[in-house]
């Protein structure tokens, strides 16, 4: 995937990032809905992404933070802060980039939290809150594979 450059609504923040895949994900969780007024559509960024400008971060949970433009409020990214193998993994807001980085929506998270009044057209993998939690929760069996 090529390195891409995007910007926030006001242009004060520019973001340079290389997508780790050509897939977009959409999150319908309560926090993303309130943050964006709909769903947060992102792509996973390879390490080394960079931002220039007035970036603010907000600790939105015990395991993640959200970055936004201090000037215009545009959502920039969601980053895992929890220590461990997922630490630092970042989902960059696809809307910062022309044509949503040219990528395709392939996953919807928290589909059971999506409001009834709208939906993305087409078919793709969908995960409920319980399925997302099971994916992120540490193994309770104690096996280390
Ligand atoms: Zn801005
Ligand atoms: Zn979410």
UniProtKB/TrEMBL annotation:
UniProt cross-references to SUPFAM superfamilies, sorted A to Z: Mss4-like
Pfam families: GFA
Keyword Signal: no
Entry keyword Plastid: no
Xref: Gene3D superfamilies: glutathione-dependent formaldehyde- activating enzyme (gfa)
InterPro entries xref list: CENP-V/GFA, Mss4-like_sf
MF GO annotations: carbon-sulfur lyase activity; metal ion binding
Keywords carried by this UniProt record: Lyase, Metal-binding, Zinc
Superkingdom classification of source: Bacteria
Boundaries of every CENP-V/GFA domain copy: 4-119
UniProt similarity note: Belongs to the Gfa family.
Name of this protein: Glutathione-dependent formaldehyde-activating enzyme
Native source species: Ruegeria arenilitoris
């Amino acid at each position: 995937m090529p390195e891409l450059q995007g910007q926030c609504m006001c242009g004060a923040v520019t973001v340079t990032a290389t997508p780790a895949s050509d897939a977009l994900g959409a999150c319908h969780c309560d926090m993303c809905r309130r943050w964006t007024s709909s769903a947060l559509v992102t792509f996973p960024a390879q390490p080394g992404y960079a931002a220039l400008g007035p970036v603010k971060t907000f600790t939105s949970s015990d395991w993640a933070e959200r970055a936004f433009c201090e000037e215009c409020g545009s959502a920039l990214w969601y980053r895992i802060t929890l220590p461990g193998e997922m630490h630092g993994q970042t989902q960059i807001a696809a809307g910062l980039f022309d044509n949503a980085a040219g990528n395709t929506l392939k996953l919807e998270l928290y589909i059971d939290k999506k409001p009834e009044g709208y939906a993305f057209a087409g078919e793709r993998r969908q995960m409920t809150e319980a399925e997302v939690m099971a994916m992120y929760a540490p193994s309770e069996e104690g096996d280390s594979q």
